[in-house]
Amino acid sequence: MVSTRRQTGETPRKPSHPGFVETPARHLSSDNQDSRSTASDAGSKDTQTSVRREKPPRTSEPDGSTSSTPKTRTPARKKKDDIVCKHCGKPDSRAGNMIVFCDGCNTPWHQACHKPPIPEHFVEVESAQWFCGSCLSQKQNPADGSNDHLEFGGTMGVCAIMTIFPALMYYLWIGATYYDGHLPWPAKDQSLRQFIGQLGSLAYEGAFPGLKAWTIYWGFMVFEAVCYLYLPGITVHGKPLPHENGRRLEYYCSGMWTFYTTIVLAAGLHLSGIFKLYTILDEFGPIMSVAIISGFGIATIAYLSAQYRGATIRMTGRPIYDFFMGAELNPRMFGLLDLKMFSEVRIPWYLLFFISCAAAARQYEQFGYVTGEIMFLVMAHFLYANACAKGEECITTTW
User: Fold this and answer.
1) Per-residue confidence (pLDDT) for residue 374, from 0 to 100
2) What's the predicted TM-score (pTM) here?
């Protein structure tokens, strides 16, 4: 008769089987399984929030460098009501405006509350590192002054650049217009003060920015902007931007279509007599004044806009220097027209080509032929502008 465990009060020994190795096994009772399932459900309810997971203490820097300790992510242990946006103080987190924790200071921000807004990429990709503006600013402008290197001689240098170069442009224009191409120089019986006054009078009389000059310059600018946005082209991506947490901006490149469309339109206006190309030469002084004023105006608007939107980067606290260097790295009008891409090719090289064409048109009308020198300039400027337009998508790789 075999004794049972209940009868003996002891746990019977298992029979041994020489030559065999027992496979370990773990058996849970149904009661234990139910209790574990209940605890798991309760734990998930306690930790579940509609926000991106909270980050552990920082193990990496905004510049992308990481420490030797690998980064791990753990679910947030805070209750939903305890997680509030630093800006608005609200705990709600919805699709398109989720709460994201900074990988530097672990501060929660709504996507729309942070300036600039947090891209959806950092919500969808859990491993993507995002740093708030404060952390980026501390990295780019450390308190120890290690990032205080100033280019162009600092404030004094950029002030000299912004005043001397426009004055030099007027000086050379006066020499080409009133001194038969020679450099202006004081007469023997003329003092320096009188000479400077004379140059100012000539600039005022011959280069005053009248309505015609404003119409020509901004008519060209608006037409080029429309071509930039709506003519056929390709879309490329720029380099990863550290201040945008590695985000790559899209650039629409329509330079080729824009260049040839502008050539066809300019030829039609010239041949029809509506707008003779050499009008650019006749109005060169006023157009130059409009260009200088417009350049300062656009730069001022871009600077103030970046300050207002909180899109500044690498600011030094020196207003004149920051104005010259640019407060925003990638300024865009309404998120569509990138000012850097637009100004890289269309404004300088297209204008230079059409100025050369204007000189050729003036020569042909006056003398019935075009000199070899002018033809060479037209060819050279055409080849360069054409190359820039055709390879516009390559520009972003150099920034």
Assistant:
1) 95
2) 0.65
Residue 82 is classified by DSSP as G
Question: Which pLDDT tens digit goes with each residue over 279-299?
Answer: 999 999 999 999 999 999 999
| Dist CA 314 CA 131 (whole Å) | 15
What is the pLDDT of the chain when averaged over all its residues? 80
Strand spans (E) along the chain: 99-101, 108-110, 234-237, 250-253, 332-333, 337-338
Q: What is the pLDDT of residue 396?
A: 83
Three-state SS at 154: helix
**Residue 48: strand, helix, or coil:** coil
Per-residue pLDDT tens digits for 339-358:
888 888 888 999 999 999 99
The full DSSP string for 241-299 is BGGGTTB--EEEE-HHHHHHHHHHHHHHHHHHTSS-TTHHHHTHHHHHHHHHHHHHHHH
pLDDT of 64 higher than 60: no
Total count of residues recorded for the chain:
399
* Residues whose CB is less than 8 angstroms from the CB of residue 373 and which lie 6 or more positions away in sequence, other chains included: none
Torsion angle, alpha carbons of 168, 170, 173, 175, to 10: -70
Residue 285: what are its φ and ψ, rounded to 5°?
-60, -55
Report the half-sphere exposure of 129 (CA within 13 A, side-chain side): 23
Query: 169 or 246, which is more confident?
Result: 169
Residue 83 phi, psi dihedral angles, 5° rounding: -95, 110
pLDDT at residue number 326: 87
DSSP 72: -
Give the tokens for residue 99: 């709460």
Task: Name the pairing type of β-strands 250-253 and 234-237.
Answer: antiparallel
* Two tokens, residue 96: 């398109």
**In percent, how much of the chain has pLDDT > 70?**
76
Cβ burial of 321 (10 Å; 0-12, 13-18, 19+) is buried
Determine the 3-state secondary structure of 94 from DSSP. Answer: strand
Distances (CA, A) of 173 to 176, 296, 382: 5, 20, 23
What's the burial of 159, exposed, middle or buried (CB within 10 Å: 0-12/13-18/19+)? Answer: middle
Let me know if 356 is exposed, middle or buried by CB neighbors in 10 A (0-12, 13-18, 19+).
buried
From first CA to last CA, the distance across the chain in angstroms is 92
